[in-house]
Amino acid sequence: AALSKTKEVDLPGGWKVGDPVPYAALAKVFSLIEATTKRLEKTSLLTSFLLLVIRRRAKGDTQSLLQAVYLCINRLCPDYVGIELGIGESLLIKAISESTGRSMSVVKADLKKEGDLGLVAMNSKNSQKTLFKPKPLTLPTVFKNLKEIALSSGHSSQNKKVSIITKLLASCQGQEAKYIVRSLEGKLRIGNAERTVLVALAHAVVLAEQESSNKRSSKEKLTERLEEAASILKQVYSELPSYDLVIPALLDVGIDRLQEVCKLTPGVPLKPMLAKPTKAIGEVLDKFEGKKFTCEYKYDGERAQVHKLEDGTIAVFSRNSEDMSKKYPDLMEQLPRCIKDGTKTFVFDAEAVAIDKDTGKLMPFQELSRRKRKDVKVEDIKVRVCLFAFDLLYLNGEPLLQKDFEGRRALLKEHFQPVDGEFQFAKASDCETTDEIQAFLEESVKDGCEGLMVKMLEGELSHYQPSRRTVNWLKLKKDYLAGVGDSLDLVVVGGYYGKGKRTNVYGASAPGFSDEALQAHYEALKSLEMSSPRGDIKVGGAKPDVWFEPKVVWEVLTADLSLSPIYTAAQGLVEERGISLRFPRFIRVRDDKAADDATGPEQIAEMYQRQALAQSKGKKGKGGD
Ligand code: ATP
C-alpha cells in the first residue's frame, strides 16, 4: 500500500543534479502534507521528495539529504545537542513588519484574526508589490540561517535575529514565508511525526537503490523490502538517534549494512526501553509463563542514562535525551567514585532519586522536581541525589543490547560499586510466586517507591530493546492497581475559558486546581494558542474555546475508561466510538516528555480492553487481586 501511493509529486523549481535543493520544493511538499490527515499519504509525499533529493545530489553529498530531513522534523541537530528553534512572537512580528513595510499593530491584528503567524507572514508578503523577483531560497541557505538564529545569544542577539529573519523573509515567494515563520516558531503544524519521516527516509533510500541497480522486483517483493527497510532504520535510529551519523552511513553503505556500522555509541543517548502497565499481580505470572523473571523496585525519580566516552568525559541524559550534566553537577562529581578500575567506556540506565541528606531515605519525585534545570551550583543544592542503576547497555567498547538481562546485570555489578547515598544497584528479588511478588511490592512502597518493575531475565526476550514498550518489562504501580493500571500522559490540545473569577485562565470546570496552578498552566499554554486544531487532530463532539499547539504533556489519573460518543481517543481501535476518562485527575506536568511520547491510541485501547477483561472476570468471581 505504501508503494502504490508513492507517486511523483509535481514540485516547483525543478533542480538539476548537483544544484542545491530549492526551498520552494520543500514548502510545496509541506503544503501537500498539511492538506491531508492520512498518515500513508503524508509518508508517500515525503518519500517522493526525499527520493528526489537523493537522486539529484552531487556525488558524495550527504548534506542535502541531512538538511532536508532536519527541516522536515523542524530540528537543526540531534536532540542531545540542544540547539532549538522557538523564536518569540514579538521578534517575529517585528521582522514581518520590517520586511513587508506593514506596521506592527496591523500584523498583530492579523495574527489575532488568523491565529497563525506563518499565514500572516505569507499573506503580508503576497499582498506586497515587488519590483524584483528575489533570488530563490535554497535548503542550505535556509538551514544555515536558522542555525545562526538558534545559536545567537547574548547582548545584541535580538537585533541580529530580527535582521536575519527580515532578510530571509525578503527572499520568500509563494508559501515559503509561511513555513519559514512556523519553523522559526518551533511549530511546523503539518502533523509530521518523526516516525513518518523515518519511514519515508527508509522508503526513499530503497527506491533509490532500486533505480540505480536497474533491478525490477515484483510489487509484493518491493512492499516487503520497504517494510523491512523501515524497520531496520527505526531500530538503528533508536540505538543511535543521530541523523548526523545515520544519514551519511545510510548513503554510504545502504540499508542492509546499516546495522553493522551504526551501533550504540557512548555520547549519543539511545531511546530508553519502556514498560507496559499491569493491573493485577496475577497478570505478571500469566505474562511470563514459566520464564525466569526478576522484580526490581520502581524508584520514583527521573530516568538517567549515564555515559562514559572514549575521551573520559562523563555525561548524564534524561528520558528525552537532554543533556542533564548542568542540572546535576553533584552527580557529575559523585559518579567517578562508583566506577571500578578497568571500567573504561560504558552506558548504564538508572533512576536519579532525591534522598534525605540525614536519614538517606528515599524522597518522592516532587523533591527532585524542585531543582533548577540549568546552571545549578553544587553549593546551592539542597536535595541530595542518589543513582539507582538497573541496566548496563555498553561496556568497554562493546554494545550489550543483545545480551541476556541476567548477564548485563552481572556485568553491572562487576564493574561498578555501591557508594552510600550516591550510587546503588536497584533493589531486586527474583520472585517466583504471587505471594512473593505481593510481599516485595509492599516492601517497595514502604521504602518510598512507586511499586515494582518486573523484567524478563533470560533469552532473547530479555534483550534491551531501545524505545520499545513490550511485556518483557512490566510496571506494577501500587496506587494504580485499582484503576486502569497506570496513569496516562496526555497532550493538552484544547481548553475552555474559566468562569466567574477565573475568566483570565483556562479551566471552566477545574475543581482541584489552585488559582496559582491555573495561572501557571495559563502561562505555559498561552503562547501555544491556535484558532483551529492542527490538521492531524481528530475533532469529535467537543468544541473547546481555544486550541493549542500539541506540546505540553500532563500526567493524568483516571478512575476508569469508558466509551464516548464525543471524544475521539483510540477511535476505531476498540469500536466506532472513542474512549474518555472517568473522574480524571491532574497529577503533574511531564517536562521530560514530548507530545510524541504521550500515551498513544493503541495503549489506550489496550488499557480499555484489559479493564473490560478484569471487570468480566470480577463478575464471574475470579478476580480478587
Ligand atoms: P513510560 O516511560 O512507560 O512512558 P513514564 O515515564 O511515565 O512512562 P513509568 O510508566 O512510571 O514512567 O515507568 C517507567 C519509568 O520508571 C522508567 O522510565 C524509569 O524512569 C523508572 N524506573 C524506576 N525504577 C526502575 C527500574 N528498576 N527499572 C526500570 N525503570 C525504572
Automatic annotation (TrEMBL):
This protein is called DNA ligase
What keywords would UniProt list here? ATP-binding, Cell cycle, Cell division, DNA damage, DNA recombination, DNA repair, DNA replication, Ligase, Nucleotide-binding
Key word Ribonucleoprotein present in the record? no
- Top-rank lineage group of the source organism: Eukaryota
Q: Which GO terms describe its cellular component?
A: mitochondrion; nucleus
The chain positions of domain ATP-dependent DNA ligase family profile read 378-515
Tell me which EC number(s) this protein carries: 6.5.1.1
List the residue ranges of the region (Disordered): 610-625
Source organism (scientific name): Trametes cubensis
MF-aspect GO terms: ATP binding; DNA binding; DNA ligase (ATP) activity
Family note: Belongs to the ATP-dependent DNA ligase family.
Biological process, per Gene Ontology: cell division; DNA biosynthetic process; DNA recombination; DNA repair; Okazaki fragment processing involved in mitotic DNA replication
